[in-house]
Every structure is written in structure tokens, then in C-alpha cells.
Specification:
single chain; alpha+beta; 4-stranded antiparallel beta sheet; two-stranded antiparallel ribbon; 3 helices
């Protein structure tokens, strides 16, 4: 089962584009990332620049409208993610609990949808998509 562990650093929604990272915290996180890799559960991971460097595309009335960051209405934003493959939700939670997160960080755990999770009709509608790299893995 694949899970995304989504890092939500509280306050990151208002971080400036040139936000500086604490080298000690980065080193601790790299040790955690190595533990995930050494255990053979890590698929991929990435950190994300703050919303002040991003954009949102909304579709009011079906037409795309672009808003540059930061986003005034944002209360929580993603700071990064890990994609892991483990045997259960409980195992994903156990890995998240090992993260050296600070008191202003939250990890949300979400199971990745697999094609086998869907009805035959939905699988037929998505036919061919599973041929893309990593798409719809079972």
C-alpha cells in the first residue's frame, strides 16, 4: 500500500521566498529520510518552496484564473511530502511518528488510490492511464 505523508508546517503559508532552513533540523530530517530509505519503504520525497513563490489556478465559471502567492486565505499549506510503500495504515502512522518534526508541524497521512480500489466502470474509463509510470499501481 502506498501512502503520502504530507508535511504541514504551521506558519509556512506566510513564509517569504527566501526563507532560511535550520541546518540542524535539516540534518535530523535527512537521518529520518535515510531510515525510510534503509528500511526499503521510501518511494520518493520532496520539499516544497513556500506559497509566496507559487500560484493557484481556479476555474470560476469554468475559466482558468491565476492567483500568484502568497494566498491570504491559506491557513495550512504543504511544506513537502514523502511517498512510502508499507503494509498498512498503522505502519505508515508508525513511520510518521518517528519523524523529527517540531511542535509547529503536522504530518497528514493519506493512502494513495489504486486502480483496484475502483469499480469496473471507473477502471474502464481510466483504461490506458495505468500504463504511465507509477500510475494506478496495484
Amino acid at each position: 500500500m502506498r501512502f503520502m505523508m504530507l508535511m504541514i508546517p504551521l506558519g509556512y503559508e506566510s513564509a517569504p521566498p527566501d526563507v532560511q532552513l535550520d541546518p540542524e533540523r535539516v540534518a535530523a530530517m535527512m537521518r529520518y529520510n535515510e531510515a525510510l530509505q534503509d528500511a526499503g519503504v521510501l518511494i520518493t520525497l520532496d520539499g516544497l518552496h513556500p506559497p509566496s513563490m507559487g500560484a493557484r489556478v481556479a476555474f470560476p465559471g469554468g475559466q482558468p484564473v491565476v492567483t500568484d502567492g502568497p494566498f491570504a486565505e491559506a491557513k495550512e499549506v504543504l511544506g513537502g511530502y514523502w511517498m512510502i510503500e508499507v503494509g498498512s495504515r498503522e505502519e505508515a502512522i508508525a513511520w510518521a511518528k518517528r519523524c523529527p518534526a517540531s511542535e509547529n508541524e503536522i504530518i497528514e497521512i493519506r493512502q494513495v488510490q489504486e486502480m483496484s480500489d475502483f469499480s469496473d466502470e471507473v477502471q474502464q474509463a481510466a483504461a490506458g492511464f495505468s500504463e504511465l509510470p507509477h500510475a494506478g499501481r496495484a
